[in-house]
Task: inverse folding
C-alpha cells in the first residue's frame, strides 16, 4: 500500500517557501502530533508542532532552522508523573494511555528537546517508574515504549533512566516485574 504524504505547513508561511518544507508521511505525523493535539490546548499543540517543524527543517540540506526558530529549554521543574497507584486506578488501560498522551511532557518525547530538558535524578527515577507502570497497565503494547524512546535513548538521561529501571527491577517492590519487563522492551527497541 502506498504511503500517503502531507506537507507540514508553517505557522509563519511567509518565512518558508514550499521547497523548504519537509514532506513527511502521514503515519509519522499522526504518531507525533495528533494524540497530543487532540487533548492539549491549542498553544501547547502549536508549541509541539513548532518543535517538530524545527527538527524537520534542520534535516533539509542548506537550511539552518536555528536562525528561524527560537531556542527551547524545557524546564520540567516541579513535574511529577502519576504514581503507580494512580495508573492502576484508571478505569481502563485506554484511559491511562489517554492521560499519558495528554500530560506526559512534550520535551521528553522529542529527540532534541529531551537533551535540553532539565530533570534531577529523582525525576528521572520517577518518570522511569511511571512509564514501567503505564506499560504494564497497557499490556506492554508499543505506545508507551515508542513515545518514551527518546527519553531512554538520550545521551543526557538514557543511561540514568535505564539504570533506574534496573534498580527498581531488583528492589522487590510491587513494580519490580513491570520495571524488568519494560527495561527489556526498551532495550529491544534500542538494539541496532
Result:
Amino acid at each position: 500500500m502506498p504511503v500517503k504524504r502531507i506537507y507540514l505547513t508553517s505557522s509563519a508561511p511567509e518565512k518558508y517557501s514550499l521547497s523548504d518544507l519537509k514532506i513527511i508521511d502521514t503515519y509519522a505525523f499522526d504518531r507525533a502530533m495528533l494524540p497530543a493535539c487532540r487533548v492539549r490546548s491549542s498553544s501547547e499543540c502549536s508549541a509541539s508542532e513548532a518543535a517538530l517543524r524545527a527538527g524537520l527543517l534542520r534535516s533539509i540540506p542548506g537550511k539552518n532552522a536555528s536562525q528561524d526558530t527560537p531556542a527551547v529549554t524545557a524546564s520540567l521543574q516541579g513535574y511529577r508523573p502519576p504514581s503507580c497507584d494512580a495508573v492502576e486506578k484508571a478505569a481502563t488501560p485506554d484511559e491511562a494511555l489517554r492521560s499519558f498522551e495528554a500530560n506526559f511532557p512534550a520535551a521528553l518525547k522529542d529527540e532534541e528537546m529531551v537533551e535540553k530538558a532539565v530533570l534531577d535524578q529523582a525525576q528521572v527515577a520517577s518518570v522511569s517508574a511511571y512509564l514501567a507502570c503505564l506499560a504494564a497497565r497497557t499490556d506492554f503494547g508499543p505506545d508507551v515504549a515508542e513515545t518514551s524512546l527518546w527519553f531512554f535513548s538520550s545521551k543526557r538521561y538514557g543511561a540514568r533512566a535505564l539504570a533506574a529501571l534496573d534498580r527498581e527491577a531488583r528492589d522487590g517492590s510491587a513494580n519490580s516485574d513491570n520495571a524488568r519487563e519494560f527495561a527489556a522492551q526498551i532495550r529491544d527497541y534500542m538494539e541496532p
